[in-house]
Amino acid sequence: MDYFFIPLDNPYTALAKIWLTLHPKTVIAMFRLHFRLLLLSALSGVVLLGNAQRRALVHMNNLSAHWEFPVVTDSIDEISLSDGPDDLLFHLHNGVTVPFSVEHLDSLTFGEEPAVETKDPYQVFQLYITTNDGSDVTSRDYYTDCHLSLNARGSFTSFSANAQIRGRGNSSFLWYDKKPYRIKLADKHKMLGLNKARSWVLLANYRDVTDLMNTFAFEMGRYMGLPYTNHTRYVELFLNGDYKGLYQLTEQVQQNKNRVAVSEERGILIALDVDDGPTERPYAGDNFTSKVYRMPVCVKYPDDERFTHHTVDSVRTELAKLEQAIKSKDYARVEQLLDVPSFIKYLLIQEFVYNVELSAPRSIYMHKDGDGPWVMGPLWDFDAGYDFDWATMTTGHTYFSDFRETVMGTNPLRRNGQYGYVPQFFTDLFGCREFVEQYKAQWAAVKDDIVGHAWAECMKYVERLRSDGAIDREAARWPIRGKSFETELEKMHRWLENRRVHITYLVQNIP
After folding, report:
1. 141-162 residues labelled b (16+ CB within 10 A) or e (exposed)
2. DSSP 8-state class, residue 39
């Protein structure tokens, strides 16, 4: 293999290419001998402004695309070549070395971030992660030290930093080769225009050929005004130089002033989730079975009882007050303890996308701040909806077969849908006339526009995914027999439109 390094705008670029063609071994030897001089030349005239990071930008050509990855560097002493040479190496602080394959290297430039951000969230961003020891990420329990380089492509500020990474998810991690990940930064930082935090999530969406199911539900939630609804940023991920495909970068659901902003002292964040409940995790210490409806509950916050007002036992007691009010159908008391509008919006979205996880339950979040009411959300995890075929749950990618199926049924109080075991916590209020009227009024207020709005937002992402070639690269990296993005996209759109008509009919006729 013939390797070469050409600094961008180098006046000897053409000559270097000629020499490479005629005398590749000589060029490599000369390159290694004069590498530091080339870097000094490239760095000349670069001025560090304010507190901005000095960045080297690694340009690579691979998979019929051009990639640019930023790396913070203070000195040319931090950059070298491996033996071979096979890799361009950045020797960073704390002993971290970040390699980039010379095989795909196009050029190396230096400079600062653009002064103006276009703030375009629909862009397809580029993310390059290397674990410090070069190992794969195989654990959901333990973090691996890593370095990440995030190219915001002029939409936002690019980012380069040491971090940690581990696997995440349940079925998505256990069943599929394309793994989802959780990233933890050393310090809170903005990512692609999203508010500062340390923890971030990379959703693999492997089961979902469209990569849009979570995005569509998030857009529905934002349209309806559900608090703390997640955002979508699509990134193409390289992990240790291996192209891993298209991922959805989004916020980790957690207590944080920029996430679920309940107070540190008296705030509560819980997940109704069988996978995190006492049956599956009997020794966790952060979960319980609810007193009235016997639902599995995991306390996400407080996560350290020593410094907060609440304990796991007190959270169980607080939730039981709401459960009992719902069970007794004391609607005046329910309205004191529950943000009913958020409950209605949450149920409408779950039923609309036919998210069967409501029945388990899984990934159903609720939060409470001090003496305030319980509020539903944030929304999370929708690739089990859209009429997923559970008969092939470990290998299949089949959705959209029937738009008429329901979780709660045509008469939710009687739970006469496909999932008759859905917790009555979600259905007993349909025995209150006031609640049914509010439920119907909420859907009537949004039914004409919500699907069109959420779909239009999704199409803005799709336009970029197509034009950047990300869809084709994802399909090549993770081919799925008998499935194509365009076909599944058409099926999804048709299913959603039919679903809107069907749900409108069902809601209008709830007894």
Report:
1. eeebebbbbbbbbebbbbbbbb
2. H
Please enumerate in sequence order all residues whose Cβ is within 8 A of that of 483, keeping only pairs 6 or more positions apart, or say none.
Answer: 209, 397
Phi and psi dihedrals of 110, rounded to 5?
-135, 145
CA distance 283 to 303: 15
How far apart CA 509 and CA 388 sit, in angstroms, is 26
Rg value, the chain, Cα: 26
Of 103-117, 212-226, 323-337, 384-398, the least confident: 103-117
Is residue 328 within 8 A of residue 355, CB to CB? The reply is no
Contact 410, 509 (CB under 8 A): yes
**Amino acid found at 354:** Y
Cα 194 to Cα 201: distance, rounded to the nearest angstrom: 12
- Tens of pLDDT, residue by residue over 90-129, are 998 778 999 999 889 988 888 777 778 999 999 999 999 9
Question: Which among 205, 486, 498, 229 has a CA at the least distance from the CA of 352?
Answer: 498
Q: Distance between CA atoms of 457 and 477, rounded to whole angstroms? A: 26
Query: The tokens 């001089």 sit on which residue?
Result: 37
Element at 181 (helix H, strand E): strand 181-191
Residue 114 to residues 53, 70, 190, Cα–Cα distance (Å): 12, 13, 16
Number of H helices, E strands in the chain: 12, 18
Per-residue pLDDT reduced to its tens digit, 337-387: 999 999 999 999 999 999 999 999 999 999 999 999 999 999 999 999 999
Burial of 419 (0-12, 13-18, 19+ CB in 10 A): middle
In angstroms, how far is CA 389 from the centroid of its own chain? 23
Task: Say if CB 359 and CB 421 are below 8 A apart.
Answer: yes
CA distance 487 to 492: 9
412: Cβ contacts below 8 Å, ≥ 6 apart: 426, 427, 430, 510
Contacts of 127 (CB under 8 A, 6+ apart): 148, 149, 150, 151, 202, 235, 236, 237, 238, 247, 249
Q: How far apart are CA 329 and CA 456, in angstroms?
A: 39
**Angle between the N-to-C axes of helices 470-477 and 450-467, in degrees from 0 to 180, rounded to the nearest 10:** 80
* Lowest model confidence (mean pLDDT) among 43-57, 67-81, 222-236: 43-57
The two tokens of residue 329 are 């159908």
Nearest to 357 by CA among 273, 424, 279, 300: 273
pTM: 0.91
pLDDT computed for residue 307 by the predictor: 62
- pLDDT tier at 447, thresholds 50, 70, 90: very high
Q: Provide mean pLDDT across the span 143-161.
A: 96
